[in-house]
Amino acid sequence: MMRSAVSLLTLAALATILSAGTSFSQRGSGQARQATPATFNRDVLPILQEHCQTCHRADGIGPMPLETYEQVAKRVDAIARKVASRAMPPWFADPRVGDFANDPSLSSNEIALIKKWTESGAQQGDPHDAPAPRHWAGAWTIPKPDVVLKMSAPVEIPAHGDVEYTYEIVPTGFTEDKWAQISQVLPSGAKHVHHAVVYIRPPGSQWLRGAPVGTPFTASSLHDPQLSHQAHWTDSDMLLVYAPGSSPDNWPDGMAKFIPAGSDLIFQMHYTTNGTPGEDQTSVGIVFAKNPPEQRVITLQLTNDRFEIPPGEDNFPVEVHGTLPNDATLLSFFPHMHLRGKAFEYNIVHPDHSKETLLHVNYNFYWQLSYKLAKPLPLKAGTELQAIGVFDNSKNNPHNPDPTKAVRWGDQTYEEMMVGFFDIAVPASLDKQHFFIRQSGPGR
Fold first, then answer.
1. Are 104 and 89 in contact (CB under 8 A)?
2. Over the range 399-423, which residues count as b (16 or more CB within 10 Å of their CB) and which as e?
């Protein structure tokens, strides 16, 4: 992630509750109702389709597919344990705070149904009871993209060591303005991708002009000092941010992100080594809005890059505040930290200094999820937003690279970041730069 130039520092499933697969037969007045056992085809498969197969399918990011009875039957006990502990599907938002449209969590009834199925022999059941298979557009979890833009050249990733942020400039070739309603980043070497940010560079922007097009580069490979500096700083809008576990963008009708005719996409890739060399050639797939939207989606961030986490501290907070310069509708959140990240919170700070918590996450570096509000939240100009990241730099953190060292902002995973991305909707005619021009008047 790079420092932002802006002044604002910067899912409900149909519950498969069939009374735990219960059906009733009436053999005469006063006779007891007899329950049939739960089966895979009738009771369990619909739950897997709704909550699990986005990842656990052929071409998915999950380590095994869970699409057929044979695939699932081999893992019955493990699946039962994972769902009972709510380790799967992964979701880290405090259930007492907020309501989120992309929450994949199983209901208590669904968990009980899977438990009943496993304890009654994990029967397959009648094939005619099975729902139709879900249709996937290859590896995409979004509908078939209208366009796929791919990094022109693959990036070779070594087995060991640090990898500097890598960039590729990809011309869109768009001859007319486009509105991206749905988009997804799809790495080809996902095991090496720590994160990716895809920026929109409109034709009038001078950002990284002079940098090579169609070939990977890093800041240090740009011999022009000004270009090298630009690799670390931009005010360009983001198409979307990707990290392991994050959801594609899928905006409601009437909302989309704007890509002007003649724009380039700039892929910023953070690769990490894992002991095995690899290669990545990331793509982004886009589904365009069918009609020009009324509202434009903009990604902003609350960022604090000036902190020092002392050695051994197990609950070290880092916070940042910012105020909205204009009215906006809050849509979603995407918190980002590294291996010492413990918790992340977004709040509204009211004029009386009271706080309204919008999201509290028990942070997991290996599943960096996005959190999309079930009901978009209109906010007035002048609304004060706060983000708080809590870090665990102690020996009790099993992921801590070195609890004896103080930690500051840095690109690599053994360093830290504190970035609270969030998405807003504004009138379609308002771009990012003009959004930050504060209008005069009370509360502005």
1. yes
2. ebeebeeebebebbbeebbbbbbbb
Amino acid of residue 144 = K
Q: How far apart are alpha carbons 319 and 144 in whole angstroms? A: 40
Q: How many CB atoms lie within 10 A of CB 47?
A: 20
Lowest-pLDDT choice from 139-143, 302-306, 386-390: 139-143
- Predicted structure pTM score: 0.86
CA distances from 265 to 50, 275, 336, 380 (A): 32, 30, 22, 31
Give 303-321 as a 3 state SS string.
Answer: ECCCCCECCCCCCEEEEEE
Question: In angstroms, rounded to a whole number, what is the distance separating the alpha carbons of residues 94 and 192?
Answer: 29
Q: What percent of the chain has pLDDT over 70?
A: 91
Q: Is 109 helix (H, G, I), strand (E, B) or coil?
A: helix
- Give the span between the Cα atoms of 220 and 228, in whole angstroms: 6
Share of the chain above pLDDT 90, in %: 80
Per-residue pLDDT reduced to its tens digit, 237-247: 999 999 887 88
Q: Which of 347, 365, 411 is nearest to 197 (CA)?
A: 411
Q: Which of 109, 98, 8, 54 shows the shortest CA–CA distance to 435?
A: 8
DSSP 8-state code for residue 273 = -
Q: Which residues contact 291 (CB under 8 A, 6 or more apart)?
A: none
How far is C-alpha 397 from the chain's CA centre? 23
Mean pLDDT of the chain: 89
Give the pLDDT confidence of 186-238 residue by residue, as tens digits: 999 989 998 999 999 999 999 999 999 999 999 999 989 999 989 888 889 99
CA distance 227 to 210: 8
Which residues have a Cβ under 8 Å from the Cβ of 143 and sit 6 or more positions away? Answer: 137, 182, 287
Q: Which two three-digit tokens encode residue 74?
A: 């081999």
